[in-house]
Amino acid sequence: MEARVEPAFRAVKEPPVITLTTDFGGQDPFVGIMKGVILGICPRARLVDLVHELPPQDVLAGCLALESAAPFFPPGTVHLAVVDPGVGTDRPAVAVATQAAWFVAPDNGLLSFLDPAEIREVRRIENPALWLHPVSFTFHGRDVFAPVAAHLAAGESPERIGPRLEGIRRLPCPEPHPTAEGVAGQVLTFDRFGNAVTNLRRHHGPGRSVRVAGREIPLVRTYAEVGPGQALALWGSTDRLEISVREGSARGLLGLTRGMPVLLVP
Fold first, then answer.
1. Terminus of the chain with fewer CB atoms < 10 Å: N or C?
2. What CATH number should be reported for the domain holding residue 26?
3. How do residues 116-155 score in pLDDT, each as one tens digit?
4. Are residues 150 and 190 in the same domain?
5. Cα–Cα distances in Å, from 68 out to 65, 92, 106, 173, 221?
6. Burial class of residue 265 (count of CB atoms within 10 Å of its CB; 0-12, 13-18, 19+)
7. For 60-116, how does the pLDDT look when each residue is reduced to its tens digit (9 = 90+)?
């Protein structure tokens, strides 16, 4: 008999909530097709579009989007995420239960934000009885991930999804580290306003300024503390350090790129 650890919940709430996170954009019917599949299996589901305009194949951006949003959904939510450069290959697909939610995604680092201590169960998605057929080599979002998320929302037993795994794949992400001049971090990604999101968190502070791209900019509480067009740094809504330009783009004005060093100066 299979030894297993019970997650904090077995059934999703009624009516079930399913979020969708993809890099599919809005110009093609892919997202709508996935919703059709979900509603065909679990017609009472409430579907929430988290984001579909992620940069194509940008797994890290998808990971950060999920990290920022998942805590604000009700217990029992099923989070469906498809940013999948390896679609059609033998890369694993997983369903992960935490204390508060299910996550259905390719096992490519997209769920790296999940705290190992919060994970209660990892299942490799292997049961073709829960998929659509024939399975496309290019659209597992429709044929694999959407059906599995819908079956979970409808109350399907996790044991039917596939065998248990010990863990999930995680993206390599250097941690900030102290130096003689402050705490060194780096730029992780950008939002649509051109703000740079870093791997520095509020507990690395407080700090008085930030050095990046050969400039030292003030660390402030709000955008209004500097003039229009001026650079600033602040703690964003996810408690990550962000580099911004008031009414402008830090990415464009400062020439920032992913991986660029950032120093939090005490």
1. N
2. 3.40.50.10790
3. 999 999 999 999 999 999 999 999 999 999 999 999 999 9
4. no
5. 5, 24, 19, 17, 19
6. middle
7. 999 999 999 999 999 999 999 999 999 999 999 999 999 999 999 999 999 999 999
- pTM reported for the whole predicted model: 0.91
Strand ranges in 125-191 using DSSP code E only, listed in sequence order: 177-178, 183-190
- Size of the chain, expressed as the number of residues it contains: 266
Separation of alpha carbons 36 and 30, rounded Å: 10
Indicate the helix (H) or strand (E) that contains 105: strand 101-106
**Are residues 59 and 145 both part of a single domain?**
yes
Alpha helices in 97-210, H assignment, sequence order: 140, 146-153
106 and 219 inside one domain: no
In a domain, 37, yes or no: yes
pLDDT at res. 1: 37
Instruction: Let me know if residue 166 belongs to a domain.
Output: no
Number of separate domains in the chain: 2
Asked if the structure places residue 89 within a domain, the reply is yes
